[in-house]
Amino acid sequence: MDNFDFYSPTYFAFGDGQEKRAGELVRRFGGSRVLIVTGGGSVHRNGAFDAIASSLDEAGILYMELSGVQPNPRSSKVYEGIELCRRENLDFLLAVGGGSAIDTAKAIGVGVPYQGDFWDFFCAKAQPTATLPVATVLTISAAGSEGSNSCVITKDEGMLKWSMNLDLIRPKFSILNPKYTCTLPAYQTASGAVDMMSHICERYFTNTTDVALTDRLCEALLRTIIEAAPRAIADPNDYAARADLMWAGMLAHNNSCGIGRVQDWASHQIEHELSSFYDCAHGAGLAVVTPAWMEYVYRHDITRFAQFAVRVFGCEMNFVNPEATALEGIQRLREFFRSLGMPVTFAEIGAKAEDIPDMVAHRAQKPNGFPFGNFVKIHPDDMTEICRLCCR
Amino acid sequence: MDNFDFYSPTYFAFGDGQEKRAGELVRRFGGSRVLIVTGGGSVHRNGAFDAIASSLDEAGILYMELSGVQPNPRSSKVYEGIELCRRENLDFLLAVGGGSAIDTAKAIGVGVPYQGDFWDFFCAKAQPTATLPVATVLTISAAGSEGSNSCVITKDEGMLKWSMNLDLIRPKFSILNPKYTCTLPAYQTASGAVDMMSHICERYFTNTTDVALTDRLCEALLRTIIEAAPRAIADPNDYAARADLMWAGMLAHNNSCGIGRVQDWASHQIEHELSSFYDCAHGAGLAVVTPAWMEYVYRHDITRFAQFAVRVFGCEMNFVNPEATALEGIQRLREFFRSLGMPVTFAEIGAKAEDIPDMVAHRAQKPNGFPFGNFVKIHPDDMTEICRLCCR
After folding, report:
1. Which candidate in A52, A117, B4, B380 could, as Cys together with A22 as Cys, close a disulfide (CB 3.0–4.6 Å)?
2. Which helix (H) or strand (E) holds B173?
3. Cα(B77)–Cα(B251) distance, rounded to whole angstroms?
4. Cα→Cα distances A130→A85, A109, A111, A114, A134, Å
């Protein structure tokens, strides 16, 4: 186990009806003039917005709304939010929705007190030193942004999907009501489950030794998601399954299962190119990339992949041929994604083999573009090969 | 899963050498005049105190020491610390040691700004509304107080071992260096492992339904401790085992595995009487009480005890006779405690069957003395029976 710092100071209020505490919690964490950041309108249709608005009204808190954040959230909306906060002298950001609304709020938060262009923080030109407080009411479990230190924004010009990670941007509080996830389309529920599982896998596949405890925590979360996701899809109103998924999504990304180990993140990097090029759902892109990445790298540590197969999917260990067990685990993961209705090939998300060189070139534009990943270092040729494995 | 709030804002710095950051961290969390609270002197012998003192000196932070906190920490030492902080105008508490030093610091923290007797907080006469900031450098993993909202103090008069629980007293930061646990006597290592396992079991045995995720987390922690504790005892310098135990001890009690479920805590309540009467190590008392409590209550939910046996100890499920599996799990737990060198009967900790009525009467003095526990409500007759099961 490596030395580590762990800091997850977010106050979580979890369960049905907790959104009624929004006013009390905004007050407790120092807000009085709030920008509510929302997406395409589902939070108006499912009643979440009204419940929060009533709660803020009761607490005497002024609020305005910035709506229309889209999936793979764009820098243009961040600029709009920064302008609005400055003009109206707003002092608190409350994201209502999923990862896109939250990440937009986080980016606005660090952008408001900064004199320069907020994008500087994403291209490593500057480090934020101040932020407006950010809080969330989560209605889509997937990204884990409600408890994480990360934020991913896509720059409209060039479709650069880049990220910023630091403790400063962890939400002050997050309200998680699983009931709001019951009205999600099955595709989005499945996509969220894949995203969570990928957040765990990115941490699980490591070269750090002596990681018994965090291995067990990763496996516990993966098994829970594997049990809960099909139930939530079969019966959208299965509250217990929704609740397990929602809390697992938070734990998958607040780093409780990733501390003390070098993490990988290669699949996420490749997926960011996919969603840049084809605007696919992040989880759908990950369902395609993750098993292909695994097939490309598993020989690097067959034992770890066999452990994954046995402990996560309950495969029987093949002591004569551990590689067979390792491969069985990868195959089980791909079948699981498919069983959730997820795409598992380039063709199924509308991606094209002939675009692979352009995606590799686009990736190379990023600061420290290549190599990426830590379990196995991914160079341009490796990324090309992994993308080809997605085309079968 | 029940609705819940979860808040674990402590900043954790984990690993070898992290104590050198004490000065930086005290500064970051607003301290300038520090009371260092220590126990019987081990932190002077193992170098921890000197490393911390140097770090505070470098950061220009003034400090004084309150030493001599004993196991099952006493109210008299708390009064002494409150006096000292007031007299010397100290503004920050840094506990260096294990749960006793930390709980003493927590009690001093809420006592200093309070006009009345700090014991009011323990007998539910008042709720603390302010505290001096408390931080810890952990050198003994067991109590989990470094990340928890709880504090247990024994009042000298009457040997009342009572507790206080609230988020206000969670440490600002905790430094955990597993190396300092390498010099612990085997008995104390074992005792710590039992304490952690008990913190998890108190959460695991619940009547709350739909707790799949937290069940898995509890099981992950228990399996890790079961693997790591014998290794740490066989080779005291096994850093990986020490590190797993140390972080597991924190997770066992910061409530990450207990959220959304009604917890039990009956074994702890009974053990508090044992350590009041015989001043035994808390973990040793728990090793005696916990399996006896299990034998007394398991029929209440045989399925849950069978799950415990199968998932935690790898017992094979007896589908014809699940009760046999349930009992096998309890037996395996007792054998595990014994294999660590722990007592498992009253006689082995010097407790006497004839004292049982006095212990039950002493318990009855507590605010809300009976019934206690939630998985099964424990009335005086039940406590008597559980204690008798400890006498075999």
Report:
1. A52
2. strand B173-176
3. 28
4. 15, 8, 9, 8, 12
Give every CB contact of residue A387 below 8 A, 6+ residues apart in sequence. Answer: A270, A292, A346, A353, A356, A359, A360
* A13 closest CB neighbour out of B5, B221, B224: B5
Quickly name the fold that domain B184-389 has.
Dehydroquinate synthase-like, alpha domain (1.20.1090)
Asked whether A253 and A199 are in contact (CB, 8 A), the reply is: yes
Q: Which of A279, A269, A253, A272 is nearest to A70 (CA)?
A: A279
Residue A33 tokens read as: 């003039």
**Amino acid A144: pLDDT:** 94
Task: Single out the residue of A257, A263, A60 nearest to residue B221, CA to CA.
Answer: A257
Cβ A234 vs Cβ A311: under 8 Å? no
> Is residue B164 within 8 Å of B122, Cβ to Cβ?
yes
Cα–Cα distance, A10 to A7 (Å, whole number): 9
Q: What is the ipTM of this complex?
A: 0.95
Which uninterrupted H or E stretch holds B75? Answer: helix B75-88
CA distance B357 to B346: 14
Q: Which residues pair with A152 in a beta bridge?
A: A163
State the first-to-last Cα distance of chain B, in angstroms, to the nearest integer: 38
Q: Using an 8 Å Cβ cutoff, are B79 and B120 in contact?
A: no
B9 lies within 8 A of chain A by CB: yes
Q: A11-180 has which CATH code? A: 3.40.50.1970
B120-164 pLDDT per residue, tens? 999 989 999 999 999 999 999 988 999 999 999 999 998 888 899
**Tens-digit pLDDT profile for residues B11-27:** 999 999 999 999 999 99
- For residue A126, give both structure tokens: 């500057």
Q: What is the pLDDT of residues A129-140, one digit of tens each?
A: 999 999 999 999
Helix (H), strand (E) at residue B276: helix B266-278
CATH classification code of A186-389? 1.20.1090.10
Task: Mutate one of B2, B181, B216, B261 to test the A interface: name it (highest A CB count within 10 A).
Answer: B216
> Which regions of chain B carry the CATH code 1.20.1090.10?
184-389
Coil/strand/helix, residue B358:
helix
Give the best residue of A1, A170, A213 to mutate against chain B (max B CB count within 10 A).
Answer: A213
The whole-angstrom distance between residue B185's C-alpha and the CA centroid of its chain comes to 18
Residue-wise pLDDT for B335-362, tens only, equals 999 999 999 999 999 999 999 999 999 9
Question: In chain A, where does the domain assigned CATH 3.40.50.1970 lie?
Answer: 11-180
State the Cα–Cα distance between residues B10 and B276, nearest whole angstrom. Answer: 30
**What pLDDT score does B344 carry?**
97
CB neighbours (10 Å) of residue B303?
A: 10
Give yes or no for a cis peptide into B371 (omega within 30° of 0). Answer: yes
Residue length, chain B? 392
- Measured in angstroms, the CA of B1 and the nearest CA of chain A are apart by 7
Max CA distance (Å), chain B: 68
What pairing do the DSSP bridges indicate for beta strands B33-37 and A173-176? Answer: unpaired
CB contact B240 to A (< 8 Å): yes
